[in-house]
Design a protein that fits this description.
Mean pLDDT is 90; it is low at 26-30 and 86-91. The protein folds into 2 domains: 3-216, Hypothetical protein af1432; 226-414, Hypothetical protein af1432 (Orthogonal Bundle), CATH 1.10.3210. The longest helix has 21 residues, at 5-25. It starts with a strand and ends with a helix. The strands form 2 sheets. It has a two-stranded antiparallel sheet. Strands 2-3 form a two-stranded antiparallel ribbon. It contains 19 helices and 4 strands. It has 415 residues and is mostly helical.
Length: 415
C-alpha cells in the first residue's frame, strides 16, 4: 500500500486544529502577547492559514524547493506538541516552552523530514531574544522566524470580520513589533505581500477553498509505505491517549488486540498491520472533544453524550482526507455501531458492518472494560466477558467476532 504524504500531513493538521478548538473551550491559555486575547480565536483553519502566510513569505525570499517543503510541513504541524498539554490549563510561558519541546520530540519520530525538529522547537522565539529558548536574532532558524510571524498574524485575524476591515490593524501591529518579535527584513517582506488585495482575499476564503493552499504548496512527490504510516499512527495515538486521563494507552491497547485477532483469523501481514493502524487511530476524533467532558467523573448529560458521540464522526472526517486508507477509515470510525442499528454515528446495521468493523467494535468494548479508569479499576476478564456475552444476547455485537477475541486471548495466555 502507498499512502500520499501530502494528504496525510493535511489530515494531521486538521486533527491538530480540532484539538486547539477543544482546548480553547476548555480554557487553556495559549499565549499572551501585547494584551491580545487569543482565547476567543477560531482555530479551525489555523494550520492552513498559518501555512499559507508562511509560504507567501517563503516565495518572497525565493527559498529553495527543499526549504519550501520543510517550511510547508513544519507550518502545518507546528502545534503538534500542543495537543499533549491540552488536558491542563497552563500559564502562558510554561505552555509555550513545553509545547515547543514536546513538538520537537514528537516530530523526531516522523518517518520523513525528521530534520524539521529544530524548526518546531524554535517557532516561538522572538528576534530580541525574549522567547522561551532565549535565542537571539539570526540564531533563530529562518523557517522558524517565518512561522512565528505567520502564526501570530493568523491569531490576530478574525473570521468574524471581513479582511478589509482588519488588515490595517494587523499590518500596524506587525510594524510595531519590528526588532522585538520580528526582524526588520521579515517585517518588510510581510508589508510587501500584505500590500496586495489577493493576499487578504486568500486569507479570507482559504477556509472553504482548498485550492488556495494547493496552488502555493510545494509538491511532495512522496508516498509512505504502510510501516512508515504506522509510525505516524503511533504519533497520533500518543497525542490522543495523552489528551485525557481516561484514555491513557487505550488506542495502543486496541491496536494490539485488533492485530492479535487479525493474526488469529489468518489475515495477510498487510491487513493485520492495517487493523493495528485502525486501532491506533480509532479515537483520533476525541481531539475535538473538550476535556471537561472527556474527564467528567460522573454521568454525562444528554448534551454531553451527544458531544462525546461526535468523536467517531470527527475520526472519519480526519481519516477520509487520506484517500488511500478508505478501509482503515471505515474500520476505525465504525467501532460504536451496533448490529441492530442503534449505534452511532451512522446507525449502521448488521448488513452494513464488515467483519473488520465488528472486530474493532468488540476490541474497543473489551479494552474499555478491562483498563483502569480514574473512577474505577479495570474489570477482570471473566466480568468483561459476561458483559460482552450479554451484548451478544441482546443483538448488539457480533457473537462470532467476540468468540474470535476470546480464542485469541486464550491462545495468547498459553504463549
Amino acid at each position: 500500500m502507498k499512502i500520499n504524504l501530502d494528504k496525510t500531513i493535511r489530515a494531521m493538521a486538521v486533527a491538530l486544529d480540532l484539538a486547539e478548538i477543544s482546548s480553547v473551550k476548555n480554557a487553556t491559555i495559549i499565549e499572551d502577547i501585547s494584551n491580545i486575547n487569543f482565547s476567543k480565536h477560531n482555530y479551525l483553519n489555523h494550520s492552513k492559514r498559518t501555512t499559507y502566510i508562511a509560504l507567501k513569505l517563503g516565495e518572497y525570499f525565493n527559498l529553495s524547493e527543499i526549504t519550501m517543503q520543510k517550511l510547508y510541513i513544519t507550518a502545518l504541524l507546528h502545534d503538534i506538541g500542543a495537543a499533549n498539554f491540552l488536558k491542563e490549563s497552563h500559564i502562558s510561558n510554561t505552555f509555550v516552552l513545553e509545547h515547543c519541546k514536546k513538538g520537537s520530540e514528537i516530530i523526531e519520530d516522523f518517518p520523513v523530514y525528521s530534520n524539521i525538529s529544530p524548526l518546531i522547537l524554535f517557532h516561538h522565539e522572538n528576534y530580541d531574544g525574549s522567547g522561551p529558548m532565549e535565542l537571539l536574532g539570526d540564531d533563530i532558524p529562518f523557517e522558524s522566524q517565518l512561522i512565528r510571524l505567520s502564526d501570530l498574524v493568523e491569531l490576530l485575524y478574525s473570521e468574524n470580520s471581513p479582511s478589509h476591515i482588519q488588515k490595517d490593524k494587523i499590518i500596524s501591529w506587525v510594524k510595531s513589533n519590528v526588532n522585538s518579535i520580528f526582524s526588520p527584513k521579515l517585517v518588510d517582506a510581510f508589508l510587501s505581500i500584505a500590500e496586495t488585495d489577493i493576499f487578504w482575499f486568500d486569507i479570507e476564503n482559504i477556509s472553504f477553498m482548498d485550492f488556495i493552499l494547493d496552488n502555493i504548496s510545494p509538491r511532495l512527490n512522496i508516498s509512505l509505505n504502510l510501516c512508515q504510516f504506522e509510525k505516524i499512527a503511533y504519533i497520533l495515538a500518543s497525542i490522543i491517549d495523552n489528551k485525557s486521563a481516561f484514555t491513557a494507552k487505550h488506542s495502543r491497547g486496541i491496536a494490539k488486540l485488533a492485530f492479535m485477532v487479525s493474526k488469529h483469523l489468518g489475515y495477510s501481514e498487510e491487513k493485520c498491520l492495517e487493523m493495528k493502524i485502525a486501532g491506533l487511530l480509532h479515537d483520533i476524533g476525541k481531539l475535538a472533544i473538550p476535556n471537561s467532558i472527556l474527564d467528567k467523573n460522573g454521568s454525562l448529560t444528554e448534551d454531553e453524550f451527544s458531544i462525546i458521540k461526535s468523536h467517531v464522526y470527527y475520526t472519519k472526517v480526519i481519516l477520509d482526507r487520506i484517500e488511500d486508507i478508505r478501509e482503515i477509515s471505515d474500520w476505525a470510525s465504525n467501532h460504536h455501531e451496533k448490529l441492530d442499528g442503534t449505534g452511532y454515528p451512522r446507525k449502521l446495521d448488521a448488513g452494513k458492518l464488515s467483519e473488520e468493523c465488528r472486530i474493532m467494535g468488540v476490541c474497543d468494548i473489551y479494552q474499555a472494560l478491562t483498563e483502569d479508569r480514574p473512577y474505577r479499576n479495570g474489570l477482570n476478564q471473566d466480568k468483561a466477558f459476561a458483559i460482552l456475552d450479554g451484548m451478544v444476547f441482546d443483538g448488539l455485537i457480533c457473537g462470532d467476532a467476540f468468540n474470535k477475541l476470546k480464542e485469541t486471548l486464550k491462545e495468547n495466555m498459553k504463549l
